Amino acid sequence: MGELALVAKITHVPSMYLSEFDGERKGTRQDAIDGHIEIARRCRELGVDTLVVFDTHWLVNANYHINCAAHFKGRYTSNELPHFISNMPYEAHGNPELGTQLAQACNEYGIETLAHDATTLAPEYGTLVPLRYMNADQHFKVVSVSALCTSHYLNDSARLGWAMRQAVERHYDGKVAFLASGSLSHRFAQNGLAPEYAFKIWSPLLEMLDRQVVEMWRHGEWKTFCEMLPEYAVKGHGEGFMHDTAMMVGALGWSAYDGRADILTPYFGASGTGQINAVFPVTPQDGGAIPNPESSTASQYRAFPRL
Which residues contact 139 (CB under 8 A, 6 or more apart)? Predict the structure, then answer.
């Protein structure tokens, strides 16, 4: 059977792409790029064949969705920040077999999920920016999962992460990495202030929250983090309501997880938002702590269902 070999929380800030070009921003995101390169190195060392990206730039209003087309190729311009990412080329092999298995497992766990293998839908930049630095030679196959979920419960996203791990371990013949692609706090600098906040967090409160969360991850305080995640996602302006993080922690074992974060790119500010690259060791889990929609614990995850 297969193996979930690596799990990471990653940045996808578009200033990484911008920093490739001559000008005042050149080289300013090299630390973030180096973090991606190191994740790719570890994946190769572990024998990973497919990167599954929980993409907080793929907005969906109903169900969960998996883009598992056989091949991706094109040029991407961000509709959000076209002056940062313009005509960025991309190409990667997909993995329809794995995508279908992931969706089937999620549905078996009661999480309505659709796999799209015959589609012209292109990945969003939460997938494409990491692939630029992790998969320039198309070594890895790629599957993208919707994680900007406007009408979804965080406990469902946690259970989706766990179900996807089960799909990999029980049905897939290969090794997979799960990448939660999204920021910590995601309060952009107000219009007109972006240059001033290019390397800063929007507020001291958000920076304090983010840094405390990073310390919790470093020290393995998962029970507390899981309990606070719904409120942190709202009051901390979490990107995509932090569904990517719920998916990631669900896959790791939720509050029963006992691993500690390995910080590759230390916490940094970008246009007011809080960013990081961190790897989480995959430890054996039985899934007993994964939230159940009928449990009192899970009721917290229905308190703030929207962005």
Answer: 40, 44
For 148-186, write each residue's pLDDT tens digit.
999 999 999 999 999 999 999 999 999 999 999 999 999
For residue 209, what are its two tokens?
Answer: 């929250």
C-alpha–C-alpha distance, residues 134 and 37, integer Å = 5
Tell me 125's DSSP state.
H
**Rounded-to-integer distance, Cα 268 and Cα 17, Å:** 16
Question: What number does CATH give the domain 3-302?
Answer: 3.40.830.10
The burial class, CB within 10 Å (0-12 / 13-18 / 19+), for 169 is middle
Distance separating alpha carbons of residues 161 and 54, to the nearest angstrom: 9
Specify whether the CB–CB gap between 184 and 12 falls below 8 A: no
Q: Is 54 exposed, middle or buried (0-12, 13-18, 19+ CB in 10 A)?
A: buried
Q: Which amino acid is at 271?
A: S
Enter the pTM of the model: 0.94
